[in-house]
Write a structure and sequence with these properties.
The structure is a homodimer. Chain A is built from 14 helices and 13 strands. By secondary structure, chain A is an alpha/beta fold. In chain A, the strands form 3 sheets. The first copy, chain A, has an 8-stranded mixed beta sheet, sandwiched between helices. A 3-stranded antiparallel beta sheet of chain A has the order 10-13-12. In chain A, strands 1-11 form a two-stranded parallel sheet. In chain A, helix 4 packs across helix 8. Chain A is globular. Chains A and B meet through helix 2, helix 4, helix 5, helix 8 and helix 9 of A and helix 2, helix 4, helix 5, helix 8 and helix 9 of B. Chains A, B: GO terms for molecular function: pyridoxal phosphate binding; transaminase activity. Chains A, B: InterPro entries: Aminotransferase_I/II_large (IPR004839), AspAT/PAT-like (IPR050596), PyrdxlP-dep_Trfase (IPR015424), PyrdxlP-dep_Trfase_major (IPR015421), PyrdxlP-dep_Trfase_small (IPR015422). Chains A, B: Keywords: Aminotransferase, Pyridoxal phosphate, Transferase.
C-alpha cells in the first residue's frame, strides 16, 4: 500500500497547496442519484423493521426479474440481499469455506477478504485482454498444486466485466472456466457488479452461471450502474438445486450473524431499481454512454504513448501496460514499476491513479489503472449536463480533464522532464 | 435451535389456522420511526458517496457528544460507525483476534460471531441478578484454564444493560470485571445498545469504559432506543491511547474489506439522533416508560407463579427461572426445560418466547426470555397512542396482551391442563 499512500499524499499536498487534482484513482461513480430513487427512499422512511435476513420479498422478486431479463431464470428464493455486494462476497467466502482462487490482476479486496475469512487466496493469471477470468489451464495447475500442498481451494472468483482491465472475457473462455470449475469441484463466485456497463448493445455478459449453473453464484448491486455505492445494498443469485440450497442456508446464517439485513428503506428503493422502469434503464444507458465516450477519449491518449492497452469494452477503467516504454521511463524519470508511474503522475501532474500492485501484479509491472468515473463534473449540475450531452467531450470541464490526463501520460512517455501541467 | 424452531412452527401453524399469536420472542422494537428522523433520511436521499469507512465526520462528532454527555469524554477520531452494532461487534472480534469470553446467559450472536471469526467462545456465568457481566472471579479461573489449555483469550464481551435478563450489573461488579480484564490483558467489548433504556432516572450505565478506559470498546446504536433496527447503523467508541489507536486502525481495515461504510442517508439521520435534540430525548424517554410499565405488569404475572425473577430495571426483557416449579411442570405438562416451557407457551397459548438454551443456559434450565417490545400495538396509530398514554395498561390492546401473557404463565404454573386462551 505504500506506493498508493505515497501517491495519495502527493495529491493531498497539492490540494493543501490550493492546487487542483485529477481524481482517476477511485472507481466510485461521480454521478447523482436518479430522482425516482430518491423519492422511493423517502417514501420508505417509515420502514424500520429488520425484515427477512435474505432481503424483502419485493427486492428478491425484483432481482429475480432482473436476472431473468438477462437470460438467467431465477426464483426469488435463490436471491440473498446484503449491505453491498462486497459484504455478500465476504459472507460467501465464509459460507463456502476453504481457500479461494482469485484472478490476477483482480480487485484488491478478494484476497484481503479471503485472509479475513481465514482462507488463502490462490492467485491465477488471466489471459491477455480477458480480464477477470483466471486462465482455465493455469487454474487446473494451480488448484492441483495447492491440493498437493495440503491446501483446500473450494471456490474461484471471476469478475465479468472486469475491474481493473475494463474488458469482458469472451464466452469461450468463461465456458472453459466453468468446465474447469466443474472438474475441480469448485464453486464459481461471479462478481458482475459492472454487468450493465458493457459498451454498445452487446447483450448480457457471458456469466459462468450459463455454463455451470449448478455451481455458480452471481453477485451484483447498484453501486456502479446507478452510482449508489453509499447506499449499501447488493444481491446474490445462488444456484438452484440441492447444493445451491445448502449454500443458501449457510449464507443466510452467516448474514444473520454479521449484518442481520440490508437497510430497509434502501431495499425499497433497490426493488424499484431492479424492476428497471424506463427512467432507470435510461439513466443506466446514459451513464454507460458517458463512460464509453470519456474512457475512449482517455484511451486514445494512452494508446498514443505506445503503452499496451487492451480495447476497453466495459466499465470506466483503463489498465495500460507501459512495458514497451520501460527503458525510456527508467532513463528519463527513474520510473521502474507501476508504483513509479502512479507517483510520477501524482507528483508531477496531480493525476491520481492506482498502481498494478494494488491488483496483484508482480514486481516490475508497469501497469496502472485509470478510472474516468470522477471526471464528469464538479457538481450535480455539471454531472447531469454530462449525462444529457450528445457529445460530453465538448463540455469544457470534461474536455479539460481528458486533456489533463492526456498531457500527463504524454509527459510520462515523452520523457521531456516538463514541470507538469499547472492549474 | 430445534426448540426455537419448534416453537416458531407452532406459532406459524396457529397463524395459518387464522388464530392470533402473542409475539414475545423477538426483541425487535415495535414502535414507529420518529418523524424528525424520517425527514432527515429523506433530506439525505441525494447522498450516494461512500464517505469515510469510519463514518461521516458529522456522525462521529454527534456520537462523541452522545458519550460525552454520559461522562465518557470522546474525541470523534475514537468513533467508528458501521452498518449496525452487530457488524461492529463481529469486526471487533476479527480485529482483536484470539478467543473471546462471553457471559452466560448472553446474546446468542456473541458465540456465533466468535466461531465465524475463527475464535472459540469461552463461556463464563454471571452472578445472579447481575446480567451481562461474567463473574470476575470465574473470569480469572476460566481465562487461566483456557490459556493452560493452549487457547488464546484476548477479549471479554459484556452487555450493560443486559439482554436477556433485563438487569444492569452494579458498578462494583463492573469495576471488578474491568480490573480483572486489566490483570488478564483482555480487551473489554461493552455492548451498550440498551444504554438508554434503564428505567427511571438513574443516570448513565456503569460502563467498563469508566474503570478500564485504556482497554474498553463501547458499542451502541439506534436499534433499541429509537426502534431503528432496520436502518442498520451503529457506532463504536475505541479507547484513547496507543493501544486504542492501533485497534482503531485494524477495525477500520476490517470494515473497509467487509462493508465499506454505513449507508450514507442513514448516517445523516443517525447524526441527528445522536445529537439528541429535545424531540429525540422525549421519544426515547416515552419508549423507556412504556417498556417499564408493560414489562412491569408482565413481571407481576410471572412472579405470581412462583418463578424466580430478578427485578427488571432496563430493556424490555424478562428472564424468569421456573426452577421452583420444576416438579409441577414435569408432572402436569411433561415440561423439563426452557425448551419445554417455550413449546408449552407456544403450542397451548400462542405465546412466542425464547428458551434459555438460546442464551447458552445448560441443559435442564427452566429459563425463558419474554420480550414486551411487540405488545404496544398492531399499527402505528395504536403504537403512538401507547407512547403518549399516561397509563398504557389502560389501553385495551395492551391490557389484553398483558392478560394473555399472564394467563399463559398462570396456566403453565397451575398445571391445570386448560386448553389455553383462545382468540
Amino acid at each position: 500500500m505504500s506506493a498508493t499512500l505515497a501517491a495519495d499524499e502527493a495529491l493531498a499536498r497539492r490540494r493543501a497547496a490550493g492546487e487542483r487534482v485529477l481524481s482517476m484513482a477511485s472507481g466510485e461513480i461521480g454521478l447523482p442519484v436518479l430522482p425516482g430513487l430518491r423519492e422511493r427512499l423517502a417514501a420508505a422512511s417509515a420502514e424500520n423493521a429488520y425484515g427477512p435476513v435474505a432481503g424483502s420479498p419485493e427486492l428478491r422478486a425484483a432481482a429475480a426479474g432482473y436476472w431473468a431479463r438477462r437470460g438467467l431464470a431465477t426464483d426469488p428464493v435463490q436471491v440473498v440481499a446484503g449491505p453491498g455486494s462486497k459484504s455478500l462476497l465476504y459472507a460467501l467466502l465464509l459460507a463456502i469455506g476453504g481457500d479461494v482462487v482469485v484472478p490476477v490482476p483482480g480487485w484488491v479486496s478478494y484476497g484481503a477478504q479471503a485472509r479475513l475469512a481465514g482462507a488463502e487466496p490462490v492467485p491465477v493469471p488471466i489471459r491477455p485482454g480477458e480480464g477477470g477470468v483466471p486462465d482455465p489451464g493455469r487454474l487446473r495447475e494451480a488448484v492441483s498444486a495447492a491440493r498437493r500442498a495440503g491446501r483446500d481451494p473450494r471456490a474461484v472468483v471471476v469478475t465479468v466485466p472486469d475491474n481493473p482491465t475494463g474488458t469482458v472475457a469472451p464466452p469461450g473462455t468463461v465456458r472453459e472456466l466453468a468446465e474447469a470449475a466443474r472438474e475441480l469441484g469448485l464453486t464459481v463466485v461471479s462478481d458482475e457488479i459492472y454487468g450493465d456497463l458493457v459498451y454498445g448493445a452487446r447483450g448480457p455478459v457471458p456469466s459462468p452461471a450459463r455454463y455451470a449453473p449448478e455451481r455458480t453464484v452471481v453477485t451484483t448491486g447498484l453501486t456502479k450502474n446507478l452510482a449508489l455505492g453509499g447506499w449499501r445494498t447488493g444481491v446474490a443469485r445462488l444456484p438452484d438445486g440441492a447444493a445451491g440450497r445448502e449454500l443458501h442456508g449457510r449464507l443466510v446464517s452467516v448474514a444473520s450473524q454479521i449484518w442481520s439485513s440490508p437497510p430497509a428503506p434502501v431495499q425499497s428503493a433497490a426493488a424499484y431499481a431492479f424492476g428497471e422502469p424506463p427512467e432507470v434503464t435510461a439513466r443506466v444507458a446514459a451513464s454507460r454512454r458517458l463512460h464509453e465516450t470519456v474512457a475512449g477519449a482517455v484511451a486514445g491518449h494512452v494508446a498514443a504513448t505506445g503503452a499496451v492497452l487492451a480495447p476497453v469494452t466495459a466499465t470506466c477503467y483503463l489498465y495500460p501496460d507501459f512495458a514497451p516504454l520501460r527503458d525510456r521511463l527508467a532513463g528519463a524519470h527513474g520510473v521502474r514499476d507501476g508504483d513509479g508511474v502512479a507517483r510520477f503522475l501524482g507528483e508531477r501532474h496531480g493525476v491520481g491513479v492506482l498502481p498494478g500492485s494494488a491488483f496483484g501484479e508482480p514486481a516490475g509491472s508497469l501497469r496502472v489503472r485509470l478510472a474516468t468515473s470522477r471526471l464528469y463534473g464538479a457538481d450535480d449540475e455539471q454531472r447531469l449536463a454530462a449525462l444529457a450531452a450528445p457529445d460530453p467531450l465538448a463540455l469544457p470541464w470534461i474536455a479539460e480533464a481528458v486533456a489533463w490526463a492526456g498531457d500527463a501520460v504524454a509527459d510520462l512517455a515523452a520523457g521531456a522532464g516538463a514541470a507538469g501541467r499547472r492549474f
